[in-house]
Each structure stands twice: as structure tokens, then as C-alpha cells.
Amino acid sequence: MKIWNLGSHIPDGESESCYRDIVPLDGDWKKIALVDTSVDIGKWGILPTEEWQCGRHLETTNMPTRLKVTKGPACRKDRPLIYEDYINWGGGQKQLCSTRFRTVLEALDPGAHQFVPVSIEDKAGNVVSDDYFWFAPGNRVFALDAQKTQPPMEPYKTGPGWINPHQDRPAMNFDQRNRPVENWAPVFHADKIGDRHVFCDGEFPRRIFMTDTMRQAIEDNNLIGAGVGRLFTGPFRAEE
To answer: How far apart are CA 192 and CA 101, in angstroms?
Structure first.
């Protein structure tokens, strides 16, 4: 099985200098929290910077339902204000997706992931699209093979009250400060991924992974903007 990093891309034909300002018109980011705040590794809960890529659903009470989008001068004028099927936003810490992306993913992972409707408005306040959702992956696993993953994983410090999700090895962490990124080679246990096609790993935070099946579905359905992460590419291995 092949595993990839899910990321967003500048659409074909669009300038790399194209920038759109996305501003929430309601909601309160600071009050959004995980539905499940339990600790499953270490001693403390999941960090706020990891919540959108941790594999758990989010409370929706304070999640923005309206976004104002303004297109920069380098963006193509002959294309809609927003048209990608998958978008990393807010420094890559949050995800937006279209109905098309949701349909493809739910066919592979039915009922697993969270999709919260959000409307898109232009700078004049006109609703230009009701086709978008906040997307939070709903599959959280501990599937990394600590013996084969490179660079070597770092053990968590242990002590009273620390939780280890493994019965057969110490809790560990993939240190993302290791450079260059091209040398990253995580290896996963296929049986711990199971039949999931999009997932997050508790020992490799702030990343969303996908199987080769999902990657192929993105290509087959021409999902604009979705694909393999540009910085952290793959393919990676999932072995029995």
C-alpha cells in the first residue's frame, strides 16, 4: 500500500502570485475546540495548532459560517472568485473543500469525516457560493512503524500520568524539525490503517495522509487544487 501527504496546489494556469484574502464574517476561532478532548498520547491534550489535522471532529458552535473572499491582482480575472475543490487556509492549519471533494472522499470513507457548510461572499457582500465546507479528518490512528521510519523517531518523555497508545513499544514522535524534508520516509503498519483512506497519525502531527486509492480518485475526478503535498511528497509505505 502507498501512502501520501494530502495537500493543496495552485490550479493549472493560475499564477503562483495569486493571493486571495479570506476573512471570517462570524464565529470565533479562539472558542473552537475538539469534541473529544481526551488524551491519547503523552500527558496533555492535542495542541490548538494541531486540531484541524489530528483526526478528530471539532465543535461547530463557534465555527464561521460566512467567509469574505477578495481576489488579488495576480489572480486570473476569467476564473471564479473561488473554485478549488480543496484549499489549505490560515497558514495551512485549516481546510476548505467543495461538494465534489466531499462526495469523492465519503465514497471511500463513509461517515468518518466532518464537513461543516460555509458560504462564500465577495467584497460587496454577495453570496457567490454555497458549495463549500470546512473539512476536518475524522480518522486518528497510531500506525507508524518506529523501527523502519526515517529519520528515527524520538521517544516521548515518560512519567506519572503519561499515556502510551501502544502495548508493544514506547510512545514516540516524528520530529518534523529534521531537515531536509526530502529525507523523510515514514513507514506505516497497514493493519493499523485498516480500510481508512484519509487519516491523521497521532505521532506525526499537523499532517493529513491519504492512500493511493484516494490519490487516484482525486486524479480521476479532476479535483482542482487537491493532491500530494508539494513540500512533503511521498509515496510512503504501509506494510503488513
So the answer is: 25
Cα–Cα distance for residue pair 191/195, rounded to 1 Å:
9
Are the C-beta atoms of residues 224 and 35 closer than 8 Å to each other?
A: no
Q: How far is the C-alpha of 193 from the C-alpha of 3, rounded, in Å? A: 10
Pick the closest to residue 108 from 3, 216, 188, 223 (CA basis).
Answer: 216
**What are the beta bridge partners of residue 172?**
155
Q: Note the pLDDT tens digit of each residue in 173-199.
A: 999 999 899 899 999 999 999 999 999
Residues 189, 209 contacting (CB under 8 angstroms): no
pTM: 0.95
pLDDT, tens only, 58-72? 999 999 999 999 999
Q: Which amino acid is residue 148, in one-letter code?
A: K
Q: How far apart are CA 63 and CA 66, in angstroms?
A: 9
The DSSP 8-state label assigned to residue 163 in this structure reads B
What is the b/e burial string over 168-205, where b = at least 16 CB atoms within 10 angstroms of the residue's CB?
Answer: eeebbbbeeeeeeeeebebbbbeeebeebbbbbbbbbb
